[in-house]
Specification:
With 269 residues, this protein is of the alpha+beta class. It has four helices and 14 strands.
């Protein structure tokens, strides 16, 4: 079994777009949301399939961007990724569903590429033995989790009525799976020791460059509008910092200790 990545409850990395300077510029905030959706679709890492809080489903046609624009034009609301709902947790009431194109090892060991909305559910399909995977490896989140909130602007006002002055309008971009990283601990593997790492470049090399391109595009848009961009130092997974930068994931860095190739043949019980 070669799918040794996991999906955890806590983020392994979170990048933050702080849009405080745009607080009184609702049109610019809306433009930011639309640009993020456009770049997410372009790089195949963030496609909204369902947004129940907006009554939106992709299968019923229509586009999310015009719906968000209409919400602002008619109701003076900028939905700064508040519509993701319930922290984008699949199966939770009012939660959105977001899709990315990823690579994983199929049942025959060959690399498969396809659409995924829930990495925890995907990993469970490859469980090599009953209860081999601890629940902490199978958390239900989308590949890229984007969170924010709604801002309501009273007619004629440039100040949101539902956001305290000490609350920064920000959008957070989190990943909960190490499937994006070139090296992983394999926390469910029988020989896991929290020190030696398995190589995962065969998968990460396919989808992580698109994630990095997406993050760089969103960073550029954030800075262009006058906001700031950084990685949240409090939301970095244990042992993941050598591969993380404000611009994405470094695919070239090496771990301190490699898991021997023979470990891939270890029997799961």
């Amino acid at each position: 079994m070669r799918n040794l990545w996991a999906q955890t409850d806590n983020p392994l990395a979170t990048w933050v777009a702080d849009l405080t300077p745009l607080r009184s510029q609702p049109e610019s905030l809306l433009r930011f949301v639309l640009d993020v959706l456009e770049e997410g679709a372009r790089y195949q890492v963030l496609k909204i399939i369902e947004a129940p809080l907006l009554g939106y489903t992709a299968e019923h046609g229509g586009e999310l961007g015009p719906l968000l624009s209409k919400l602002y034009q008619e109701h003076h609301v900028v939905d700064l990724f508040g519509f993701t709902g319930a922290a984008m947790a699949p199966g939770h009431p009012q939660s959105s569903t977001a899709q990315a194109t990823l690579s994983w090892h199929g049942v025959n060991g060959k690399v498969v590429e396809g659409a995924c909305t829930d990495l925890g559910a995907l990993l469970l399909r490859f469980e090599p033995a009953p209860d081999a995977f601890p629940l902490d490896c199978l958390r239900h989140y989308p590949p890229v989790r984007v969170t924010g909130r709604r801002l309501e602007y009273p007619p004629g006002s440039r100040e949101p009525k539902n956001a305290p002055l000490d609350w920064p309008p920000e959008v957070r971009f989190s990943i909960h799976s190490d499937i994006w990283f070139p090296w992983i601990f394999g926390m469910a593997h029988p020989e896991f020791d929290d020190k030696r790492m398995f190589g995962n470049r065969e998968l990460a090399g396919r989808h992580t460059p698109r994630l990095n391109a997406f993050l760089k595009a969103v960073e550029a848009k954030t800075l262009e509008l006058g906001g700031s961009w950084q990685i949240d130092s409090d939301e970095i997974g244990t042992g993941m910092s050598p591969w993380l930068t404000a611009h994405g994931i470094d695919l070239e860095a090496e771990p301190l200790a490699h898991m021997p190739a023979a470990a891939l043949g270890t029997e799961w019980v």
